[in-house]
């Protein structure tokens, strides 16, 4: 009886060793970086965590195929390293000693990736299934890009400023015209001092214009 | 009745206008590069010598001419000698070219500013590819900040020949930039005078904030040590001295006519000698200050990249050899590498091509200048800071202030001669003339919003102003010293500010500065002749980096036109005046 038990156990062990080994068919490598993810709060990877992992994979398979046949014992782990990385396969209990096709496992994991990550307090980057690419979440894009809104605000302010300045300039110009016509009406009554036909005020305001002929003669005068 | 010339409200507005114009993007993105290339702290020696030999004298000369003649560049040079009206016209043409392409930088600054109001910053991460399994291919090959600049901002084409279409986002930003400039110059000195208070002082506030932030960043000290260790052997390299002279020359904005325009709105008794010294000293101090900030940012970025590189190598080794996490650190990396090479030679050999040699010096050595520094390096550093949105907004707002300050000077250089000429000023009010100039520049500036626009921008940036300005300033100095006469100029200065220029100014004006400019001119010409064909850097999307290409024929023709358009004005102006005088003399003689 004992010998039979030992025999079956060894056969199962050998079978398992056959099924789960690096680069086996339908096997996946998992790499976990606990210290990177959690820093000081990192937990150690031990047999309990492995049990949880097996449970999560079994859960994923059950949810995906919705037949409650996958057991925790169907998930085989092997080659656990210090990194922490290991390989796993999911065996099919209905057909003996075969593994569930990789595509099914992949689809199941993909579907439940979020739940698996959260069970270990990790993320897609720190709990890596090496052959299963994760769909990256797209960035949240608002309906109108933010920059257009800011652009619109600034544009309105600037245009308002320009319009204000132009309008006030036109108003000032009109007032000046009105004032000057009033002054002209006044001037017709008052005599304006003229010098060669130019009103004296204009002469005062004209900026100095350098007459080249006279400027050159500066040298001839004795300096004081 | 003639209107009196508008004046600055007080001398402070004038000084601020000059500072705002002179302190521009070149102080931030060109000087730190030169410092790095030509000997670190040692570069300050040729820089300061050139400031004294060429910067201060030429600045004083231009301000004095403008203040004395009280006209824009065309009018001022016509008064000095009627044959020199071409110099003024050349200045206006160069200013026109400059304002065409310079405002595109403000458009880019606006673009980045508007995009800074997001979390996370859009250049912090790569966008996802179409089936969401990874990042965009082009972004993977280069970095996310470079991708944002080359693809999402410029949408750059692979070469100059493929022009592509106008990028509407950039066109919108360019229109906004021109509207802002129009708002500031609308009323002439009345509006410009108020705006320069802001554009001159705000960049300093931001620089101080960045200095404090930059010095407290992790790894900033590496950058500062790298910058300030003088490599005195670079002083023997003639290129060092030439770069120092060129930088002083272009940084002060001499020869564009802007300084003459600004000074023409001064009271005749304004002490422009003191102001010239103040402005040139502030300009150089700002350059040094900005390079301290830039190098602390460099140090931070280089340290960050170095540490990421080390972490990547560690991760690679951990994954390949399934070692425990934390067993490999930056300190024991080298020993562990040797150990692994000895224990697993085959696997290590397979892995060897992927293992990069991370070096802090290599990261610090990547010297960048121009738009690459301002928009790529800085945004890369900003995305790694805490509260990046705040620093991003501050930084791009500062770039905007610097750019708009310089644009005010450029447009003043174009508008002052136009408003001085009675033919135009009597028919159109000031607002219409400014509006027309802004509108024409905006429409032509749309060329720079094409997909190949950045290549055209580089053409304008490198060739539109360099040779022409040297020639213009050379003619200006010779004209004032030898045609107008240095004694007459002395007397004018005595009338204006009450003191005669001492021997330092006279020697610099008469001998040193012209000689320096002639040597710069000869250097540039020989450099061009020796290199033969001109080349440019084009962005290759497939490789994710810049590649060198030759300019096509029509681009070379445009370069030639740019240089010729401004330099030919000088002899043409003299010729036209000569012909006019001849005709007048003939007419008078036939009448008599």
Automatic annotation (TrEMBL), chain A:
Keyword Nucleotide-binding assigned: no
Keywords assigned by UniProt, alphabetized: Cell membrane, Glycoprotein, Membrane, Phosphoprotein, Signal, Transmembrane, Transmembrane helix
Membrane topology qualifier: Single-pass type I membrane protein
N-terminal signal peptide: 1-17
Positions of the Collectrin-like domain: 24-224
GO biological process, one term: positive regulation of amino acid transport
InterPro entries according to UniProt: Collectrin, Collectrin_dom
Compartment(s) of residence: Cell membrane
Transmembrane region(s): 146-170
Gene Ontology CC: extracellular exosome; plasma membrane
Keyword Chloroplast assigned: no
UniProt protein name: Collectrin-like domain-containing protein
Source organism of the structure: Cyanoderma ruficeps
Organism lineage string: Eukaryota, Metazoa, Chordata, Craniata, Vertebrata
TrEMBL record, chain B:
Name of the featured protein: Transporter
Membrane topology: Multi-pass membrane protein
Family, per entry: Belongs to the sodium:neurotransmitter symporter (SNF) (TC 2.A.22) family.
GO biological process: glycine transport; L-proline import across plasma membrane
One Gene Ontology term of the molecular function aspect: metal ion binding
Top-level division of the source organism's lineage: Eukaryota
Entry's localization field: Membrane
Pfam families tied to this protein: SNF
Residue stretches spanning the membrane: 12-31, 43-61, 82-102, 168-186, 195-221, 241-265, 277-298, 393-415, 436-457, 463-486, 507-526, 554-579
Binding site for Na(+): 22-23, 27, 251, 283, 402, 406
Main location: membrane
GO cellular component terms listed in the entry, alphabetical order: apical plasma membrane
